[in-house]
Amino acid sequence: MPHTIGFVDNSGGVLAHYKMLETIRDFASANGWTVLRYDTAPANRELILKGVGYTGEEEIFVGFRTYQDATADYYNLLAGGFTGYVAGNSFDTQPGVRLSGVPAHNNRIDYWLTLNPQRIALAMKVGTPVYESAYVGKCLPYGRPSQYPYPVVCSGMLTGAAATRFSSTAASHSMGYTGNSPSLGLRSNDGWLNAYCYPWGNDVLAGSSQVRDTSDIYHLIPIELHDNSGNLWGALDGIHFISGFNNAVENTIDINGDAHVVVQDAFRTGFTNYYAMRLDN
């Protein structure tokens, strides 16, 4: 499945975060996802999508909506994961809902958007700049479908629809991929979990010491979801930890013929504040 790289802005009198929502809709619907709802009438515009997974027979429910406050000068997206779809329900009251905010902008947004039949991943450059990330859809489960039929992840940068501007340097403004945060939820068989994410939390790989490139070759490490105890549930699809040593945001790295773009965690530039997002073909 494909990817797209580009930008949106506020030309034509339409705010950039509204155009970003439209871009997600257009790209997803053109590449195998069904649009169940696209409502642009309210200020908080809504997009709900259904994917069919790698089998072509699944029902994976995800979405994005906007939320904003001109007085507080924030214009954000809200990523959502659901267990079903009810036409009469609002975005925030869909079955089994999990929500995570993603700071965006009313002005120019540069974006990297990639998808496959089971998940949608997004990175955005906004403002000063900072980098914002989201992932909605299935992970790669370490279990059979009969054991773990709906391993959906909803990951953003904030806890729910937090009233947070992209310029915030609060600890709570951080990508869910680092784990142990309410900004990333993993759907278990009986509810949503706040998962830990390997290798963050491993003091050797991403702590007091860190991995680095080997003769300019970067080795990607799967981001695996676990409970910091005895349970390991799966890995994110196409999202990997990458070292920040001798590396920079927006670098593109080729791994076995697949391009990956390097993205940082909001405003952070430490060695362990980066990941690589596969640009699906």
Structure description:
6% of the residues lie in helices and 42% in strands. The protein is mostly beta strands and 281 residues long. It has one domain (3-278). β12 (184-188) and β13 (191-193) form a beta hairpin. The protein is globular and about 50 Å long.
Short summary of the structure?
With 281 residues, the chain is mainly beta. The protein has helices at residues 16-29, 203-206; strands at residues 3-8, 34-39, 46-51, 60-69, 74-82, 98-103, 109-116, 119-126, 130-138, 140-141, 152-155, 184-188, 191-193, 196-198, 221-226, 232-241, 252-255, 258-264, 274-278.
Count of distinct strands: 19
Biggest sheet features: 7 strands, antiparallel
What is the number of helices?
2
Tally of structural domains: 1
First and last CA, distance? 5 Å
How much is the average pLDDT?
Answer: 96
Structural classification: mainly beta
- Molecular shape: globular
Stretches where pLDDT is under 50 for at least 5 consecutive residues are none
- Helix content range of the residues, please? under 10%
Q: Looking across the biggest beta sheet, what order are the strands in?
A: 1-7-8-9-11-12-13
Order of helices and strands: EHEEEEEEEEEEEEEHEEEEE
Computed Rg? 18 Å
Q: Give the DSSP E fraction (strand runs of 2 or more residues).
A: 35-45%
Give descriptors for this structure.
281 residues, seven-stranded antiparallel sheet, 19 strands
